[in-house]
Amino acid sequence: MAYSEKLIDHFNNPRNLGSLDKSDESVGTGIVGAPECGDVMKLQIKVEGDKIVDAKFKTFGCGSAIASSSLATEWVKGRTLDEAYALKNTEIVEELALPPVKIHCSVLAEEAIKSAIEDFQNKKNAAAAEG
Amino acid sequence: MDCSKGHGGPRHLLTPEDPVRTSTSSSTETTVYLDNSSTTRCDPRVVEEMVPYFSQTYGNAHSRSHAFGWNAEKAVDEARERVAALINSKPSEIIFTSGGTEACNLAIFGVARMYAEKGKHIITTNVEHRSCMDPCRALEREGFEVTYLEVDTTGRITAEQVAEAIREDTILVSTIFGNNEVGSLMPAKEIGAVCKDKGVIYHLDACLGLDTETIDVDADGIDLLSMSSHKIYGPQGVGALYVRRRRPRVRLRAVNLGGGQERGFRHGTLNVPGIVGMGKAAELCMQTRDEEKTRLTALAKRMKDAFWGDLDHIYLNGHETERLPGLLNISFNYVEGESLMMGMNGVAVSSGSACTSATLEPSHVMRALGVGEDLVHTSIRFSLGRFTTEKDVDYAVEQCLASAHKLREMSPLYEMVKEGIDLSEIEWKHD
Fold it and tell me: Residue B351 CB: number of other CB atoms within 10 A?
């Protein structure tokens, strides 16, 4: 048994599974990965002020990829955008005790968080420019 | 698509020495074994015959001066007869090895080095097992020319392709019989006929299939045939190579050197208990192969019907009918293979997903069949065997369906497809 108990728990009981309304202005969506590569993560955040009040994910990928994205949603909830943007993949590696060959899953989760935040900010900037 | 798995991450943590550790289930108790193409359970009847040869009737089969050696040799001779009978060869044409890999290596290197002066061209396919593919690649580096015939989308080549590829300097045609990943069967008999006609040596890698298919080396025109004991309910660590002695007499240059055993083709002390076990395994296969073929065909159909009756977007890889009856390789689109296995409790199967391989490289076999890389990641190989029951199949199906449904709920791809989005139109963000 190589996967840690924490990882298996996230796989069996994924946190914050689901989707938020993509068109909602307070929602940022990040989709990273590719089907050809065997992993695609969709991570969404709902923002009030500069705080992430909700997060959801859906992931196509191995057990590590699913657990990494589940953990990522848990960690970004309640944080400010800056705090969430500063999260590092190595923290995920450590928390889930990812085996070396699975480190790319944590990298993808970090990218998904950043991508969701950037999407939210782009939306906000576009709205401000229009306004 | 560059699927570099190291993008931005701490690459240095990934070294070739790192063991690949991918757990397949949160349950430590695996109850249903559907990975018979990896290895089979040693039949208890085989074990029973082997046991005396460890510490009661022990001896070196090559010792000529005492009864210990003679008894060991007698046991090996009996096993040789049983193995020969399975493929309708003469006992003297069977060379025992340490397994299927060694048999394949000996066949390919042995012919290439013995007949190099006659020609340096070899014909094979692009879906071979590594134990044949890698020797061919090594020979290319030594100056041999290798033609890799391309299979069709069902995983087969035709005898016509072989006929067209044979040249003046072709010394060997080598093909797999039952494919270990997708189960497709090569038309060995037809290929054998072409090789006979053209006077080229034909090696068949029959490590899989001898428990259900009938091969007759004479009628089928096969000159070399590799066998593995542990794929046919015998012990691990033993195999055999059939080497034709008449019409034509095939000669081989040995790969390892030593004490002159096995007619000088394969040096080294014989694994007497293992060989005894392989002999018994061969005998059992010969007695049961026809009924096993029927039984496994029905069991696999039961499994297939259950999956197709419940899930959309699933595909059978390999040939629909010309296949090993117990092997089903299925792509469960939009669900990654490793996670699918993780979600199945107590079921041992294997996956074509790169995430379960040491190299993170998708299978060359699936690629050769033209299976899209997205689908390769979603494939699971179920291989049923002699000890698989209907109950086992039903349990595995139940577990797999539960896992697939759960993971599709989690899959952003399945969600997009349900929303009517064409996934091929999306520009995927990936470094």
Answer: 25
